[in-house]
Design a protein that fits this description.
Blueprint (H helix, E strand, L loop, with lengths): L35 H12 L4 H11 L3 E7 L2 E6 L7 E7 L4 H12 L2 H8 L7 H7 L12 E5 L9 H16 L2 H6 L4 H14 L52 H4 L12 H15 L10 H10 L10
Antiparallel strand pairs: 1-2, 2-3, 3-4
Helix pairs in contact: 1-6, 2-6, 3-8
Length: 315
């Protein structure tokens, strides 16, 4: 048979099966990730120069091909719907920090009053990575060799588009709960907070206001009864005159609300939905532009008077 007489078999690319109940990326255009943590993670991935694979993975993430996602110490697991009927199994491994490393990091976090207060309140400090770097540790992978990725698909490329899609959905999971970053490195949120509470108890100097005459004695001797203190209850005493504060708006004002389980109020909305505007309002009123000389007494007076005119706190 002559070469041009051979039968021609056209190539049809596999059709992707659209998932009916997948996790769709919230960002449908532009960059994925709203907070510093997710943006930092995406920046790290893009620095690996994975090319078009990340782009194809972003498309998968936006169409909801990632069916589920689970973050455990050292591994992220997901199922991603591809062209076959059975979803592909994806895993992304990252080295867990040793117990010795975590003790060092927790000691450093407990030694910073602001970080400790934010973490115990369920908020992630934006520059928490600096604390880890000071301990010669890293939260995010430094190179693609730090990640061990696997997918059950037949694609020879690694990472494939299914792994890349999982990267993007993982980044948005960090938006919802940045504590997942620490869990991936080996410290689930409940364990971390329990350890920090113990360290706070063992180190009473962290965040402690110097004891004054009213605090003398184990039974509170010298403390006037509450009914005699109502007039000045919200006023700062002399013990706080030299305490300087610098309130800043939260990166994600409703971070605590996002971690609540749905609580139905019977009004067609959840408790988190009802409280979210108040949290966003409080964050908007945070006097982020205060100078270094702002005192607790000034802040207390401003907070007591309120901000009806939309004014910032006094300088």
């Amino acid at each position: 048979m002559a070469p041009f007489d051979e039968p021609y078999y056209p190539y049809y690319p596999p059709t992707v099966r659209r998932a009916a109940a997948g996790i769709k990326a919230k960002s449908q255009r532009g960059a994925i990730g709203q907070t510093w943590w997710s943006q930092q993670f995406i920046a790290v991935l893009e620095s690996f120069r994975l090319g078009g694979r990340l782009t194809r993975g972003k498309s998968y993430a936006r169409t909801g091909q990632v069916l589920d996602l689970e973050v455990s110490p050292g591994v992220v697991s997901a199922r991603v719907q591809g062209s076959r009927a059975r979803p592909y199994q994806v895993s992304i491994g990252l080295t867990v920090l040793s117990e010795r490393d975590w003790r060092a990091a927790e000691d450093a976090l407990a030694g910073e009053a602001l970080y400790l207060a934010m973490l115990l309140a369920g908020e992630m400090p934006q520059d928490i990575g600096e604390v880890f770097r000071a301990c010669k540790l890293a939260l995010f992978p430094a190179s693609h060799r730090d990640l061990v990725t696997q997918c059950s698909c037949p694609d020879y490329a690694n990472p494939c588009k299914h792994i890349a899609a999982t990267y993007y959905i993982l980044a948005e999971a960090f938006d919802e709960d940045p504590f997942l970053i620490l869990a991936w490195r080996g410290r689930p949120k409940d364990v971390l907070l329990a350890n920090l509470r113990l360290l706070r108890q063992d180190s009473p100097s962290v965040g402690e206001v110097p004891a004054g005459p009213a605090a003398a004695g184990p039974s509170g001797a010298g403390v006037p009864p509450l009914e005699e203190s109502l007039a000045g209850f919200w006023s700062a005493g002399p013990e706080l005159a030299e305490l300087h504060v610098r309130p800043v708006p939260a990166v994600v004002p409703d971070a605590v609300l996002r971690q609540l389980d749905p609580i139905d109020l019977g009004l067609g909305t959840s408790l988190a939905d009802e409280l979210r505007p108040a949290y966003e309002r409080m964050a908007a009123l945070a006097p982020a532009s205060w100078g270094e000389g702002a005192s607790w007494a000034g802040w207390a007076g401003w907070a007591e008077e309120g901000d009806p005119a939309g004014e910032t706190a006094p300088e």
